[in-house]
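Researcher: Predict the fold of Recombinase family protein.
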Amino acid sequence: MYFVKPPIAAAAYARISSDPTGQGLGVQRQLEDCRKLAESRGWSIAEEYVDNDVSAFGPKSRPAYVRMLDDLARGLRDGVVVYNLDRLHRQPRELEDFNAICKRAGVRHVITVTVDVDLGNDDGLFMARVIAAFAAKESGRKSARIKRQALQRAEQGRPSPSFRRPFGYTQDQMFVVESEAAVIKDLVARYIAGESISSLTAWLSREEVPTVSGAAWSPTSVRSVIRSPRIAGLRTHNSVVIAKALWPAIISEAEHDQVIAMSKTKQMQNRRAPRRYLLSGLLRCGRCGSRMASSSKHGKRWYICPQSQGLASCGRLSLAAESAELWIAEGVLARLDSPAMTATLAGGSANNYVQPALAKELEADREQLVDLGRMFGNREIGAEVWKAAREPIESRVRVAERRLAASSRNDALGGLPLGSPELRNKWTQLNLTRQAAIIGAVIDHLVVAPGIPWARAFDPDRLSPVWRL
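Model: Structure tokens for Recombinase family protein follow.
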């Protein structure tokens, strides 16, 4: 094709759908061919636009392509060089949008290694539309094949291909890295025992435990590790567990269910700020029965019955935090150190039987939800039947998760040297969230009675604990 005036500020565009290595070798090859083609035609390339590891078929945005369209619309580019038209579009609608922009900007020349397209005449536009239609059809077929292969791989319990190694496993995801598995077991045990995500993150940083990528640990990355079904030997597909994995588990399924149940409970409680008060949530006002809140005044910490418009609390009672916390902590330690308590806990608890049973119920209900979803997807049942069958199962799942989270409370006592002089030394080494979890496992709540007006000394008789154990 002969052009009277070759473009002097053309755009070169390169795209590849998948680049698992992240090295961009595919787009580099495309650009090399585009440069040679432009040089052979006497075109000048003003800028190269690259979308690496981005499909043109899915809904994911293509930043470089969008930027190129903007430059074309503003008259900054007067031609387009691309390796093949399907690098530009795999959807007919996108082609029409591209053509409209080029038409308004007076850009009509698109050249590729295989074919040239003149968008300024009917034949050229027709050819571009035919190519886009075939590309869309092939992309649809390819997408369906890939999705089916991914589902089959998941149903067989095989791992999905991943460039990044998961923490706790080898690169092929089939074998355990023992040093990292030990960290995962510790994280899960401490989380179930009541330690917060922020506390676990700080611990990993202090111990200089390396991440897979070498980046610093964050609450998000810690949460992702301990919540992952992978470490329980479970294979998911589209965030749903559908099979037992072929790789070995690091934690049990019961532990995984506890982690998920507890994390949902904590999300509902919305505890985002780091804990600063040991007895937060445990104290009740002896005047009105309201939950007492923490407060700080003149550099001193207090627990107060809050008074605010719209609240039923009286606002007429306060308690010095430091003295109360020391007294309650000593009372809990004394109770845990008693021979009767040691014998009771050594004999096991109902949780030893409740947790596995709950975990089995959860597994059965979740499998039933998966079966329902598969039946709905295969059009064996309609939407109304699917919804009616799903709701009671989801309700049972929510109840079981709450019960499992509640049954995990006594796990906060795990690892404590009961009946040993080391108990109090161990207590001083624990962080605030773990100490609070232990107190919460032993005490349901404390009722705070009104004090004597103007009394300065701490009066332990004001506190009436309601014991769990």
